[in-house]
Specification:
With 272 residues, the chain is α/β, with parallel strands linked by helices. The chain has nine helices and eight strands. Helix content is 39%, strand content 15%. Bound molecules: zinc ion (ZN) (2 copies).
């Protein structure tokens, strides 16, 4: 077992370990994360992609505390059917998922028409409200409509606004609604000054860090053209610690405590 003494205890609040980029070394990526001090990873499966949920369910079975979530992403919103909602009901009733997500709105890529994105979000928020589950929200150029959707469904179980790239007003409004704001490797990018300003202003007890692996590798891995993986969450945490004037250990402790408040987990995990 790798000695993780002295390593910051971090949570990667968002990693797509189901993606083909992790086909060959999925379990090794998890082991490297644990060796780097990561103590939990939240993995959102997409119900429209065959193999996505099974890959994450098997990781979660092999490596607690890897946690599974499931939903239909904004990009695939046009594919959402009542069967997906029934599948979510089955997963929730078996305790197989900790959250509904990722779900949301992406007006940058527009892979699904915006009205269908809003409808898919609305239906999945309604399901999560009924099931009493938190949601993992994706928002790209869509902050106002995300807030309107959460309010429209009178959604009360909060969750995570992941890979945050929106403005301060959106961050503040979501925090007021009980949400956590999760920062990805984008926070380390040279041009992300606006994002760093938001990260400096938010309450410490609302902050999370994530990789969004295999995408968005943080500096210095980004420059090297590397695939992102959960072990690299430490670089985003290091940047966030600097922004907040905290030590990496204190920032890790705060974000891990925040995550555990939303998704309690057994903290003896890690190592392998
Ligand atoms: Zn996303
Ligand atoms: Zn994602």
């Amino acid at each position: 077992m790798e000695d993780t003494t002295g390593k910051p205890r971090l949570v990667d609040s968002h990693a797509h370990l189901d993606m083909p980029e992790f086909g060959a070394d999925r379990a090794d990526a998890v082991r490297r994360a644990f060796a780097a001090g990561v103590v939990a990873i939240l993995c959102p499966a997409d119900l429209t992609r065959p193999g996505s949920l099974p890959a994450i369910a098997s990781l979660a079975a092999d490596f607690p505390p890897i946690m599974a979530a499931a939903g239909v992403h904004a990009h695939q919103a046009k594919e959402l059917t009542p069967d997906h909602i029934r599948e979510l009901q089955g997963l929730a009733s078996r305790g197989a998922i900790r959250a509904v997500g990722e779900i949301g709105l992406d007006y940058h890529y527009d892979f699904s028409p915006p009205d269908l994105q809003r409808e898919a979000l609305r239906r999945q928020l309604a399901f999560a409200e009924e099931a009493g589950l938190p949601v993992i929200l994706h928002s790209r150029l869509a902050g106002a409509d995300i807030i309107a959707s959460v309010d429209g469904e009178r959604f009360r179980h909060a969750g995570i606004l992941h890979c945050f790239t929106e403005d301060w007003e959106t961050a503040r409004a979501m925090v007021e609604r009980g949400f956590f704001v999760s920062f990805s490797g984008i926070l380390t990018f040279p041009k992300a000054d606006k994002l760093r300003e938001v990260a400096a202003r938010l309450p410490l007890d609302r902050l999370l860090v994530e990789t969004d692996s295999p995408y968005l590798a943080p500096v210095p891995y980004r420059g090297a053209g590397r695939r992102n993986e959960p072990a690299f969450v430490v670089e985003t945490a290091r940047m966030l610690a600097g922004i907040r004037g905290l030590s990496l250990d204190d920032l890790a402790e705060a974000t891990t405590r925040n995550f555990a408040g939303l998704f309690p987990f057994e903290k003896t995990g890690g190592g392998c």
